[in-house]
Amino acid sequence: MTRARRPKAPAAKPAAAAAVATALPPTGDQFPGSGYVPAIGRIPILDLQPQLVDNLFPTKGYVGDVVPFSCVSFREGHDIIGVELVLTAPGAQAARIRMRPGPKGTDSWLAEAQVTVAGTHEWWIEAWNDDFATWQHNAEIKIPAGIDVDVMLELGAQVVDRAATNPELTSHQSAVLRDAATASRFTSRSASFRLASLLADDVLEVIEAHPVRSLVTSSAKRRIQVDRALAGNAAWYEFFPRSEGATQAPDGSWTSGTFRTAAERVPAVAAMNFDVLYVPPIHPIGRTNRKGPNNSLTTEPGDPGSPWAIGAAEGGHRDIHPDLGTVEDFRYFVSEIEKNGMELALDLALQATPDHPWVAEHPDWFTQLPDGSIAYAENPPKKYQDIYPINFDGDRNGLYAEVLETVEYWIELGVKIFRVDNPHTKPLQFWEWLIHEVNAKHPEVIFLAEAFTRPAIMHALAKAGFQQSYTYFTWRNTKTELEEYLTEVSKESSDFLRPNFFVNTPDILTEYLQQGGRNAAKIRAVVAATSSPLWGVYAGFELAENVARPGSEENIDNEKYEYKQRDWAAQEASGYSLAPLLTKLNELRRANPALQQLRNFEVQFSDNENVLVFSKHLPGEYSPDGVSNTVIVAVNLNHSGIEEATVYIDQTKFGFAADTEFGVEDLLSGHEWIWGGANYVRLDPSTLPAHILRVRHSAL
Fold it and tell me: Domain of 620?
């Protein structure tokens, strides 16, 4: 089913509406001449949105998503038309939603619908001549002017007579219309009385709900793929299982953490209100060309290597690193995650070390060089000597089948989410095929694309099936950069790309975080958690780990290449840890449905280039409690000092009149104020760098 936003006028037609025209022309008549059937219907319906430009793939939504729809529709002459969105959810009757006119002179029509069921939805648009509205417009001009009075009244009575025959009406509704038509034909009464009979409130109420339609025209059908809620609204946390519970002996040697010790960290992650726990690859790690600390080319005995260097004598992509435990230990780990109200995301990295069984068993899955060697992975100037990239064209069917079976193997072990490493280095066609095959059997499975690459490729991956995408958010730090980028992902690409705003990764420690330390981490967390319904952090972010390896954008002593111990409890006891802030941010996200939407991001103005202000508003008809939910975020982007600003709010974005004053509550500090069009803020990054304000609607 869908929950639809219905304009005050005209009203929406009930679900059991008249049958939809399925061919052009609607009557099915043949045209003379060659029999050519115009692509344009009797009433043109053009520029349907949302749809992808190439129309190869459906647009996207997720359960709870409020989807905007629009089209351009008009007809010749001056008759008034009506336009209606028809939306069908899997297994449900079509919902019919009257569209409202867009800006004057554009011939655009707009509507929104909240999708509440997962699966493929079909939608189309119907337009028709609104016979009653056309008559009413003409009658209200002509009759008071004494022009064609009797003719206009009889035309109105005939339209109402037709309306009364609608089989969807109740007997009472039909009687209301018949009585009005009869009264309008009392020639002994005044013209104003007769006109008023046809325009009585009870008549208009019936006609508004059941328009009198002619020349009904239907557009072609479009699709929306609606995924489960977690595909569009979730907070992610990443950690390395081998570090959780790892111990170091006095001689410097390490004992790896296991799935059992990692499970002990799970309740703390869940206590921060995260929804997804993501772990890097858990497979055997190759020994040939194994990387040492800080990505060095030399290793010492006991260096664990990079988890992304997959494959050893112990096995490959369907095997577990012996240090982490057994399949039963993995099942236990998954069960503990689920017991704590989260889901596990597993890394899917399609690459192999020289030691991977695939190398010996399927050499045609790799690129052979003229000297007989196999090409290793490169991202110049970076070189990954411990990894062989896969050649997807050597034995396509064999490789594709192996990957599908591998993904299904982990699904059987309880994995429903895959974070895909470097998908842009594999064929787009492969991902389209794989995600289709997996989702056909397991529609609940979610794929996140880790593709920091050119926009066209990132967009194509999302269109081809990836339910989530990493983005350029980590490198957007100034007010202008953020305003432009947040507007782009919430408006321009929101029909197909769901941005997951990770604030850091094992590979990404931005200059902003390096320079700003703890203050910068707070600022980035606030922006990410409130501007997008998807966001994530990599372990250590809450401790503001910000020391980079010289000349790089990576943490020094990077956890990709070695074990890392962190004293979480001590850092929280000292008050240094940002875990309380992350906990609060995730709590606010769950409590405010406006923050669970992507498309509702709106920039608000401040007179300070270091103060970013934006709002997210959800009308009451889409909110679980029926009350509009509005959140205003004002954040100081200067991690080094206090900033003051005047914030100018467009209250009309929240359904208020332009001059309305309204109450706000700061969800971080608990303070309350009265706000209006212009408001003063003072933000100190050393304490709370932001206001997260919930607008009080219920008391208005």
Answer: 601-695
